[in-house]
Every structure is written in structure tokens, then in C-alpha cells.
Specification:
With about 200 residues, this protein is an alpha/beta fold. The chain has helices at about 10-15, 45-60, 75-85, 125-135, 160-180, 190-195, and strands spanning about 30-35, 40-45, 65-70, 90-95, 115, 135-140, 150-155.
Amino acid sequence: MEEDFLVAQDIYLKAGVHIGTKFKTKYMANFIYKTRGDGLSVLNVQKIDRRLRIAAKMLSRYNPEDILIVGRRENSWKSVRAFSEATGTKAFIGRYPPGTITNPNLKTFMEVKIVLITDSWPDRNVMMDAFREGIPVVALCDTNNQTNYIDLVVPCNNKGKKSLGLVYFILAREYLKNRGAIAKDDDFKYTIEDFTEE
């Protein structure tokens, strides 16, 4: 049965959104479709698509200025910037200094109501700050991630440039559709390439 995906299934597959790592945690077992002969775990594309829909709906309940998107790993920088530009959300690229969302005395202080992180390990400082403040965390999680302190897990390859570009492209487009800023996919003025590192 062919499902109605947010993008064509072959676009997901070409971007490698489903390719996990050789390490898998018990937290991510529910999202793993199979483990290949070479030891790489493969994520379930239907579950990725479903979680992207849920994440976009969850984010769309918040105004852009109340959302912070974070990506410490360099592979995510272009995607995070493009998401921020397309949606008007706040973005933090590179090393996040602890206290940025908890300590009003810092020059970098930001007030936010929800956080979207690219990877729970390198982005753990913001994840822990959000947890302490009771701010919901949406996180892109690969097969090797732990999911403690995360409110919504979006399973995907969160290390590959093409995968991250596609995931953030979809989230930005669906966020704007859910907010009523655009009516249909064709109204989104950005392309997947705008979100993807070369």
C-alpha cells in the first residue's frame, strides 16, 4: 500500500533519511526497521514521515519568535539557517553556551517556549536548559541517540547533510502550512537545495 508521504518516498531514500548508525540504543528500537548485513541500522520511513507531521503540528502551535532551533554540528548549519530564514524562528548555530535560555543576565539570553535540536548529544546543553525550565524539546534522533529529556522524538539520519536538509525543508514547509502562512506545497518559495550543504 503506497502511503501519502510528505515528499515522495524515493526523495526520502535518496537523501538517506532512513540510514542510521552501527550503534543502536533501546530508546530508538521502536523506530528501527531492520539492521543490514554491514551492521547499519535502517529507520522506518513511514515512522519518520509520521513524526515529521507531528513535529510540524507541534511547532506550529507556537509563534516563530517563541521557537529556538539549535545545531552544533557543522553539517546542520545551512539547514538550521534556512529553517530560521523561512519561518522567522530563532536559531543558534555552533556551540550553545549553557544558560542562554535560563539566565536573563547573559547577553545571549533568549526567551523561548519550545526548542528544536538537531542531535541530543552535541546539543545536550540546550536540551538540559530547556528541561530545567520546563520548555518542550523536539529532537531529531538517529539510531544511536538516547531520548531522555526529549518530549518528541523525530527519527532520522541527523548527521548527513542531505538528510538534514530534507528534514528541515519538510519541517519548515509544513510549519508554514499549519500556521496558514502558505496554502499548499507549491507556495513554499524554498527548494530542498536551499537547505542542503553541497
